[in-house]
């Protein structure tokens, strides 16, 4: 280090020798830095952080080896309806017809390659952050046993929708106070085969869907898994204090229900019947990314869509920030949620889990070239349909080719 400096000065003696201009330069530089940084410092001291994070830490993310070994399989997916719909988060199939809910509050019906608006739960206008609570945001969508659709709208609650007429019936209003708390972010649902019970999540009582970055970064632990009885119309809280309760999926035998806990990068399990009825445990701990929706796979396991990777080897921003709440506060004093999203590296990732919770296989798209992020992987007729909460297209992967 020292040697290098001496050589440098010897080679440019004029720089070292000119003490006066060197001093001027130093003063100018210091003044410049102070002028630029002082307001920033004052601003960070005066500004209030929108979040109130508690420190916590993750386990070291799993190594991307074995069934998690990165591959390019997700790049074999084809994009469908590019530019014709935005943010098809969740997907349901009824024969050859596809249903999905989009970021502009619509429930779309896609048949014979044509997109139609089936229903709209909220009101126009739509398209901005300010409009979102009144526009509505259909997230989880399922086909029930009678061939009707069941939809979880982030702002309005649970609905049944007629797939032909588009008639909408409210089942549970998001305004309903449940055990003293409102539902600020209704997210996903799963229905029993007899149609009697609907399991659903409210991701948070505090943060709405449009503030999901705050929810993740604050690590708020107020998400709930709930059960709606379609006969008694009662709602019961099964699990509370979840950090971003997200996707929901009943097991094939309907003896338990899985719920992804996004902020914790894990999947929880609630036992509905059997010896462990009413109890819960962790189905999958320490995922290689942050999970979104979970859907059945034809092998009796589950597909898990992942929003953001926790690379190992590599650097995971969320893992780094978790024990440093002061840094999270600083970030949100300086940047908007939309801005922070731009720093998140794109990476398409879908996992297939076996029914015992082990990893069967994974499909990757490093850098998200074709599939930038996966909110849900929905298997139908040998294809995996991939949703995204922000992309302007659906993706479809031929499972026979991977
Ligand atoms: C299905 O239809 C039957 C007969 O109309 C009705 O009793 C039942 O409640 C319906 N189930 C659902 C889930 O809508
Ligand atoms: C993946 O699932 C298939 C179908 O159930 C099974 O035959 C196979 O053994 C599984 N592979 C692993 C690695 O778990």
TrEMBL record:
Keyword tags: Glycoprotein, Membrane, Transmembrane, Transmembrane helix
GO molecular function terms attached to this record: arylesterase activity
Residue ranges constituting the Strictosidine synthase conserved region domain according to the UniProt record: 187-274
One annotated Gene Ontology cellular component of this protein: endomembrane system
Residue spans crossing the bilayer: 27-47
UniProt membrane topology term: Single-pass membrane protein
Localization terms from the record: Membrane
Superkingdom of the source species: Eukaryota
InterPro entries according to UniProt: 6-blade_b-propeller_TolB-like (IPR011042), Strictosidine_synth_cons-reg (IPR018119)
Family according to the record: Belongs to the strictosidine synthase family.
Protein name, per record: Adipocyte plasma membrane-associated protein
Protein species of origin: Chiloscyllium punctatum
């Amino acid at each position: 280090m020292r040697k290098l400096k001496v050589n440098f000065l010897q080679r440019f003696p004029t720089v070292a020798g000119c003490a006066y201009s060197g001093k001027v330069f130093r003063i100018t530089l210091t003044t410049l830095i102070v002028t630029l940084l002082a307001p920033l410092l004052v601003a960070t001291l005066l500004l209030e952080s929108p979040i109130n994070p508690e420190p916590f830490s993750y386990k070291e993310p799993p190594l991307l080896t074995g069934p998690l070994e990165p591959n390019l399989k997700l790049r074999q997916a084809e994009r469908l309806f590019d530019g014709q719909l935005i943010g098809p988060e969740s997907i349901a199939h009824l024969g050859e017809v596809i249903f999905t809910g989009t970021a502009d509050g619509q429930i779309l019906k896609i048949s014979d390659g044509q997109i139609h608006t089936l229903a709209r739960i909220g009101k126009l206008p739509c398209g901005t952050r300010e409009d979102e609570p009144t526009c509505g945001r259909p997230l989880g969508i399922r086909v029930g046993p009678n061939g009707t659709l069941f939809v979880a709208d982030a702002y309005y609650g649970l609905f049944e929708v007629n797939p032909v007429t588009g008639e909408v019936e409210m089942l549970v209003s998001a305004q309903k106070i449940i055990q003293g708390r409102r539902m600020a972010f209704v997210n996903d649902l799963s229905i029993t085969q007899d149609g009697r019970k609907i399991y659903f999540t409210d991701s948070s009582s505090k943060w709405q869907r449009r503030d999901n970055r705050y929810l993740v970064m604050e690590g708020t632990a107020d998400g709930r898994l709930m059960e709606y009885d379609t006969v008694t119309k009662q709602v019961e809280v099964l699990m509370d204090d979840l950090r971003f309760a997200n996707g929901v999926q009943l097991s094939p035998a309907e003896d338990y229900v899985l719920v992804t806990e996004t902020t914790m990068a894990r999947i929880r399990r609630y036992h509905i019947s059997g010896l462990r009825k009413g109890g819960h445990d962790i189905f999958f701990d320490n995922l290689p990314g942050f999970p979104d929706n979970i859907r059945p796979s034809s092998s009796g396991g589950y597909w898990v869509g992942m929003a953001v990777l926790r690379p190992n080897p590599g650097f995971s921003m969320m893992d780094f920030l978790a024990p440093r709440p002061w840094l999270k506060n600083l970030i949100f004093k300086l940047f908007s949620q939309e801005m922070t999203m731009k720093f998140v590296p794109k990476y398409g990732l879908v996992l297939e889990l076996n029914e015992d919770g082990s990893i069967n296989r994974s499909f990757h798209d490093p850098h998200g070239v074709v599939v930038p992020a996966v909110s849900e992987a929905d298997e139908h007729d040998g294809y995996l349909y991939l949703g995204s909460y922000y992309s302007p297209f659906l993706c479809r992967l031929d499972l026979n080719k991977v």
